[in-house]
Amino acid sequence: MISRPIGRMYSCTHSTHSFQETRLIYEESQTVEEGQRNLEAWLLKVRKVYGKVVQTISEHFEGICNYFISRSSSGVMEGINNRIKLIKRQGYGFTNFENLRLRLLACFTGKGSPSH
């Protein structure tokens, strides 16, 4: 049997429950106003546990709530940018742009040869 302090178990359970609550806010809110109300209520509820997170979300509240307008995020672009940065770091010292270009093509299309 794994022994964990009770406080840590509560924290893990609380984190999981809070994550599920935020997921439901984004999935079930039908309008921008409803999403804002639900997110504000959640922030008030968890402010003692997630003080810095709540502060950061509050500072970017309007931008975060813009998700409810079109239900899209920049997550895919963030992933692409991170992949490009990783390839650039791995390729430090590439002798020319063509080598970088071929690495990027191989990464994103599975095609890295000039014949494709």
Automatic annotation (TrEMBL):
Q: Which organism is it from?
A: Gloeobacter morelensis MG652769
The superkingdom listed in its UniProt entry is Bacteria
- InterPro entries attached to this UniProt entry: Transpos_ISL3, Transposase_DDE
Kindly give the PANTHER family that the UniProt entry links to this protein: TRANSPOSASE FOR INSERTION SEQUENCE ELEMENT IS1557
List each copy of the Transposase IS204/IS1001/IS1096/IS1165 DDE domain by range: 16-104
Recite the lineage of the species: Bacteria, Bacillati, Cyanobacteriota, Cyanophyceae, Gloeobacterales
State the protein's name: Transposase
